[in-house]
Write a structure and sequence with these properties.
CATH architecture: Orthogonal Bundle
CATH class: Mainly Alpha
Order of helices and strands: HHHHHHHHH
Radius of gyration: 22 Å
Number of helices: 9
Strand content: under 5%
Number of strands: 0
CATH superfamily: MetI-like
Distance between the termini: 61 Å
């Protein structure tokens, strides 16, 4: 195994840029996707029927088509259509709309929103109605019941599943290398082309992804343990009672 190329600042720059883009893409997609997921869940449960059917169609299409196809659709399809709009190239939005990071983040936000939205919807339907009625009995408004009781209780129920969704999202990010976005896989491909090394760059980014997954898993596990209602009670080895 030859890793002498790691000392070259030129290749270090590629790897560092790819790693930073990967983390930013993960952060933006998780935050935007979970916000969309809450809206999807509420629309499916409490929204008017036309909106509920529209959201159902959205989640069905997103969950029923490959993520790579969605990425190509937004980048090569929607992106090309936006280029044809008169005056778009001179607008302030053009630097954003021509950036592959925007289309990658948009694709992942829709994916997280569709999958996690159904997870949150199921969790909200699993919250006992007695808890919500107790909140109303204490004089809480409908919005307060939602934000203080219903939604936190649902997140508590589905938090382990949402954690798995975030881990799966991290492992889906290498797909953006197909739309010329510099991520870890794209950096490895460039290094392979220039050094003619096949395995070493791929093994390196596999190790980086593995280490990142372990750190992310531990961090999300801490969130689960410290989330209200999720901290397990400590058991004594010898009970005095």
């Amino acid at each position: 195994m030859d890793y002498s190329w790691l000392s070259d600042p030129f290749y270090q720059g590629y790897l560092w840029e790819g790693f930073i883009n990967t983390l930013w893409l993960l952060l933006v997609s998780v935050v935007g996707g979970l916000l969309l997921a809450v809206g999807v869940a509420l629309a499916r449960i409490r929204g008017p029927k036309p909106l509920a059917w529209l959201v159902w169609a959205f989640t069905t299409v997103i969950r029923g088509t490959p993520l790579l196809v969605q990425l190509f659709f937004f980048y090569y399809g929607v992106g090309r259509l936006l280029e044809g709009i008169p005056g778009i190239r001179e607008s302030l939005l053009w630097p954003l709309l021509r950036d592959p990071f925007f289309f990658g983040a948009l694709t992942f936000i829709f994916s997280v929103g569709a999958y996690s939205g159904e997870v949150i919807r199921g969790a909200m339907l699993s919250v006992p109605q007695g808890e919500l009625e107790a909140g109303r009995a204490f004089g809480l408004s409908g919005f307060q019941v939602l934000t203080r009781l219903w939604l936190p209780r649902a997140i508590q129920l589905c938090l382990p599943t949402l954690t798995n969704e975030i881990i799966l999202l991290l492992k889906s990010i290498p797909l953006v290398s197909t739309i010329a976005l510099m991520d870890l896989l794209q950096a490895a491909n460039i290094i392979r082309d220039e050094t003619f090394l096949v395995y070493e760059p791929l093994l390196l980014i596999a190790g980086i992804y593995l280490a990142t997954t372990v750190v992310l898993t531990l961090a999300l596990r801490l969130v689960e343990l410290n989330f209200p209602g999720m901290r397990p009670t400590r058991r004594r080895w010898l009970s005095l009672r």
